[in-house]
Amino acid sequence: GMHSIHGRATAVASGLKAARPELSVWIVTGDGDGLSIGGNHTIHLLRRNFDVNILLFNNQIYGLTKGQYSPTSEESKVTKSTPMGSIDHPFNPLALAMGADASFIARTMDRDPKHLQAMLLRSQAHKGASFLEIYQNCNIFNDGAFEIFTEKSSKANEVLFLEQGKPLVFGATNNKGIKLDGFQPVIVDIAEGASTDDLWIHDEKDFYKAQILIRMFDDPRMEGHLPRPFGVFYETHRACYEDVMGMQIEEAIAKSGKGDLDKLLRGRETWTINP
Question: Mean of the pLDDT values across residues 212-228?
Answer without folding.
Answer: 91
